[in-house]
Amino acid sequence: MTYRVKEVFGPTIQGEGLHAGMACMFLRLAGCNAWDGRPETRAASACPYCDTDFRGGEPMTLDAIMARLGSQPAMGCVLSGGEPLLQADAALLATLGSAFTWVDVETNGTRSCPPRPTNVFVSCSPKAVAGQPVLVEPDWWKVLIPAQEAFIDRALASGKPVFVQPVCPDGGPAGEGYARNLKRCVQLCVERGCRLSLQLHKYAGVP
Q1: Peptide bond connecting 115 to the previous residue in cis, omega within 30 degrees of 0
Q2: In a structure prediction context, what are the per-residue pLDDT tens digits for the chain, which is 207 residues long?
Q3: Cα(113)–Cα(79) distance, integer angstroms
Q4: Residue 7 carries which DSSP code?
C-alpha cells in the first residue's frame, strides 16, 4: 500500500481551527476532487481561491511517511491536501494518532472519514462540488467567507464549533478584498456565534 504524498514539512504551527497556534508537522497528500489543480480550470472549480499546489506527488509507504515525519509526541500533525480523504485510510489515521498528540484532518467534506482514534479530529471546510454532497460529520467546521457562506446554517445546526475564515483574494491576509471579507466574518461572529479563523501561519510568516 502506498500513498501519493505531495509534501512533508515542519515543525510549523497549525494556523487554523481548534488547534490554531500549536506546533505541528504537516503531511499533504496529493490530489483533489474539487479542482484538478490546473491554472486554466481554476475559475470554474469549486474553490477558485485555492492557493495550494497538490498535483503530482511521490508514492510512499506508511513506514516511509512516518520516517519522514518522525515521532513527535509533543506536537500535532495536520493531514491535508488537496483532499486527503481520497487516500487516507484507517491504518494511516491510527498510525498518525499514535505518533502525535493530536491530528487534524482537513477535508472538504465530500468523503466519509475512516475509523479513527479519539485524538484524530476532522475539520471540514465545506465545498460545493457538483454531484458530491458534503457528508462527513466533522469535529468542527471552517467556513470560507464569502465563498462558502451558504453552508453556515448547516454548520451551526450541527452543534459543533463553526469557524469563519476570510478568503484572501489579494494574495495573503491584506488588501481591500480581504478587509471586506474579514469584516463579514466579524459580523457573523457577533450575530451568529461563529469563531474567527485568521490563518495564523500567514501572519507569522511560516509555511
Answers
A1: no
A2: 899 999 999 999 999 999 999 999 999 999 999 888 898 998 888 888 887 889 999 999 999 999 999 978 899 999 999 999 999 999 999 999 999 999 999 999 999 999 999 999 999 999 999 999 999 999 999 999 999 999 999 999 999 999 999 998 777 788 999 999 999 999 999 999 999 999 888 888 887
A3: 12
A4: E
pTM of the complete model: 0.94
CA-nearest of 174, 134, 170 to 150 is 134
With cell 491584506, the residue in question is: 174
Q: Which of 27, 39, 36, 35 is nearest to 3 (CA)?
A: 27
* Cell numbers that stand for 58 in this block: 511521490
Q: Are strands 100-107 and 120-124 parallel, antiparallel or unpaired?
A: parallel
- Decide the pairing of beta strands 100-107 and 72-80: parallel
Looking up cell 518522525 gives 70
Cα–Cα distance, 54 to 27 (Å, whole number):
11
Three-state secondary structure of 19-75:
HCCCEEEEEEECCCCCCCCCHHHHHHCCCCCCCCCCCCCEEEEHHHHHHHHCCEEEE
Domains with residue ranges and CATH for the chain? 2-204 (3.20.20.70)
Q: Which three cell numbers stand for residue 160?
A: 459543533
Question: Which of 183, 47, 195, 29 shows the shortest CA–CA distance to 106?
Answer: 29
Give dist(CA 105, CA 69) in Å, integer. 16
